[in-house]
Amino acid sequence: MERRKFIQKTAKGAMALGAAPLIFSNSNWKGANDRVNVAVIGIRGMGQSHIREYQNLKNVEVAALCDVDENLFAGRVKEYYTDKGLRKPTLYNDMRRLFEDKSIDAVSVVTPNHWHALAGIWALQAGKHASIEKPSCHTIEEGQKLVEAAKRYNLVVQDGAEQRSNPGAQSAVQFMRDGKLGEVYLAKGVCYKWRDSIGRYPDGYMAEGEKYASTVNSTSWIEPFTKEYMEKVNYDMWLGPAPKRPFNRNRFHYNWHWNWDYGNGDLGNQGVHEMDIARWGLGVKIPTRVSAMGGHLLFDDAQETPNVLMAVFEFPNPEGGGDKKKVMQFEVRHWMTNPEGNNLGSGESLKNTYMTSSSNVIGNIFYGSEGYMLKDVSGWQTFMGKEREPGASGAGEGNHYQNFVDAIRADDPGLLTAPIEEGFYSCALIHLANISHRLGRTLNIDPVTFSVINDEEANRMFSKEYRKPYML
Q: Start and end of every Gfo/Idh/MocA-like oxidoreductase bacterial type C-terminal domain (predicted)?
């Protein structure tokens, strides 16, 4: 049989089995010896940023795309490949088939949160390097398993804490490590994002001609989720390890963030970036006490996670004064609010950076015995002494994707600015805060065993049940 027709027939037959790639490419082709072939898993939201950023790197090819929603493929291939004169990628609707592709060197996992660690572990077992979007784990236990796998297979595993690749963040932390802010005793992370109500919708597909939501949390639903649309979605694969539930538009694209089965609320969405910076700046890992309170306020809708949350963490500080501890605060707000510090990120003290606007304020404040520091995504400014005089400052953005590729080429995970173990410790704080909130009580932590003291109910929430065959 003529080769092209054979491939077409093979592809159709494989698709009937629901497993094989949709488009085949010549996997024997290779460019220069140091070319890195990357695949992006999840191409709807942030996945598009991953495609663009890798395509901007020298001698890197985004050779494959994977998504459970086949409706997305034609548009992505046109925008990022054929319109640019680039060779079409191999397309997969099942990541397991992608992991069998020996031409792929590395993957970016840009799925919903409940898939992050499992997809990362599967990639490592298949010999692929992995960059895993934040938060790198949906529970504490699977984060520990992901770190274990990274060490076992000795591959490059990058956490999505991209600010760690920014010279601005690196110089801010170094300033504090050098003692120039004095004893840094308190860090505060803020995540104030304007989030509208998601409403309530019945389970099931949308009717033909039904109007769909024009705006949800500043993200438009551009797809009418009709039966015809969903026929091209591998919904069982989308659920993956999560419990079997019928389709609901409020548990699908983007709004999965606000459901415990798939997301971790805004604390694990945008907040994880600032949580990581706060922990890094303080120089701490596992807390000894965690207390969080808040709730889902104002709106009577389908959201399960809190949209207002205040969490406090205590860490040991043997070298400090007084009670020998460090404290971290974190606040999530979703509606009317005010800036922090000297109008953090408003443009008065720091440059107006991404994720900062009239309705969003994102960043960190560090308090030391000699002054305090405001930090946004790319810059920082200190205010020193009792009079809070402007002091040292810094800025600069790096390239997290380049750092990942450089570590792959050197075959050296030690080159990573955001190794997966550091990402895990920051994710653990998110999970501990959510557990404290959901149980309505303070958690006392044994940092040696990393368990909650005399609280088996809390310890059970370190893990979750997995739906077969998507087992951890």
A: 230-283, 401-471
d(CA 232, CA 276) in angstroms, rounded, equals 37
Paired strand residues for 380: 375, 394
> What would the two tokens of residue 92 be?
């997969």
What is the rounded distance in angstroms from the CA atom of residue 362 to the CA atom of residue 376? Answer: 7
Give, in degrees to the nearest 5, the angle at Cα 326 between 321 and 330: 150
* Alpha carbon 454 to its chain's center: 31
For 3-162, give the CATH class. Answer: alpha beta
pLDDT tops 70 at residue 30: no
Name the least confident of 58-62, 212-216, 223-227, 430-434.
212-216
As a whole number of angstroms, the distance between CA 132 and CA 46 comes to 12
Query: Which residues make Cβ contacts (< 8 Å) with residue 61, sequence separation at least 6?
Result: 31, 35, 36, 37, 38, 87
Number of H-type helices and E-type strands within the chain:
13, 16
Please state, in angstroms and rounded to a whole number, the distance separating the CA atoms of residues 469 and 445.
33
Token pair 């109500």: residue: 197
Strand partners, 142: none
Q: Which of 416, 219, 185 is nearest to 316 (CA)?
A: 185
Q: Residue 287: is the preceding peptide bond cis (ω within 30°)?
A: no
Complete edge-to-edge strand list for the sheet that includes strand 184-192: 389-395, 379-384, 371-375, 361-368, 184-192, 325-333, 308-316, 289-295, 443-446, 451-452
Highest mean pLDDT among 2-16, 340-354, 398-412: 398-412
Report DSSP state, residue 417.
S
| Number of CB atoms found within 10 A of residue 140's CB | 21
Give the containing element (helix H, strand E) for 92: strand 90-92
**Domain spans, the chain:** 3-162, 163-398+420-472
Q: Decide if domain 163-398+420-472 falls under CATH 3.40.630.10.
A: no
How far is the CA of 320 from the CAs of 52, 185, 276, 290, 328, in angstroms?
45, 8, 22, 20, 15
Average pLDDT of the segment spanning 227-244:
96
The region that residue 295 occupies, defined by phi over 0 for left and psi between -120 and 50 for alpha, beta otherwise, is: left
| Residues 311-367: tens digit of each pLDDT | 999 999 999 999 999 999 999 999 888 777 655 544 444 443 334 555 688 899 999
370 phi/psi in degrees, rounded to 5? -110, -10
- If DSSP states are collapsed to H, E and C, what string results for 30-81? CCCCCCEEEEEECCCCHHHHHHHHHHCCCCEEEEEEECCEHHHHHHHHHHHC
